[in-house]
């Protein structure tokens, strides 16, 4: 169910591909930062108790 993009198909598909790669990268960086923050918070909470 692909629309006919004509002569712009390569440009449009490469833009979609780049966008998907950037979104996946941002999600990965966010998850990694959240895990790092949680680990640091857990360490601080253990030192308090």
UniProtKB/TrEMBL annotation:
Presence of the UniProt keyword Secreted in the record: no
Entry's transmembrane regions: 12-31
BP term (GO), one: heme transport
Membrane topology type: Single-pass membrane protein
Keywords: Cell inner membrane, Cell membrane, Cytochrome c-type biogenesis, Membrane, Transmembrane, Transmembrane helix, Transport
Domain of life: Bacteria
Stated name of the protein: Heme exporter protein D
Family, similarity comment: Belongs to the CcmD/CycX/HelD family.
GO terms under cellular component: plasma membrane
Location of this chain's protein in the cell: Cell inner membrane
NCBIfam families: cytochro_ccmD
One Pfam family of this chain: CcmD
């Amino acid at each position: 169910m692909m629309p006919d993009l004509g002569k712009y198909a390569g440009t449009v598909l490469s833009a979609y591909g780049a966008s998907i790669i950037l979104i996946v990268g941002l999600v990965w960086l966010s998850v990694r930062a959240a895990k790092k923050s949680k680990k640091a918070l857990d360490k601080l909470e253990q030192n308090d108790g």
